[in-house]
Amino acid sequence: MTNKEEPSHPFLIVSHGDGKDRRFPIKRRETTVGRDPANDVCIEDHLVSKFHAKLLRANQSVTVIDLNSANKTKLNGQVVTQASVRYGDELQFARIKCQLVLPEEEPKRSSRTG
Q1: Which positions ≥6 away from 6 have C-beta within 8 Å?
Q2: Is residue 114 pLDDT above 60, yes or no?
Q3: Average pLDDT, whole number, for the chain?
Q4: What pTM was computed for the model?
Q5: Which of 106, 44, 43, 55 is closest to 83 using CA atoms?
Q6: Distance between CA atoms of residues 48 and 42, nearest Å
Q7: Cβ-contact 17, 10 below 8 angstroms
Q8: pLDDT at 41
Q9: Which helix (DSSP H) or strand (DSSP E) does residue 99 occupy?
Q10: In a 3-state reduction of DSSP, which class is residue 26?
Q11: What is the distance between the alpha carbons of residues 82 and 103, in angstroms, rounded to a whole number?
């Protein structure tokens, strides 16, 4: 028996430079992001603040709020203190790049040919 009426939760895909992406479901109304293990999304990078940012989810919208981090939060390359995030947008916490996606919209790995 499947529950098709259950809404899809967005995911934050955290890209580390080593090619090992991690997926974090954004199920709660408020999700914290930072280096400290107490965060919902723990990013183990010394440039990420212990409590770097939070994501607020309301219905189908997500807002990112920077928590006075030392190395800033960026949305699509622009430094933000608070901003509305759309699915597919790139978030950056210090130097760590992330993407907010719905499960059915997960990015496919592109093969680059030169």
Answers
A1: none
A2: no
A3: 86
A4: 0.82
A5: 55
A6: 10
A7: no
A8: 96
A9: strand 96-101
A10: coil
A11: 24
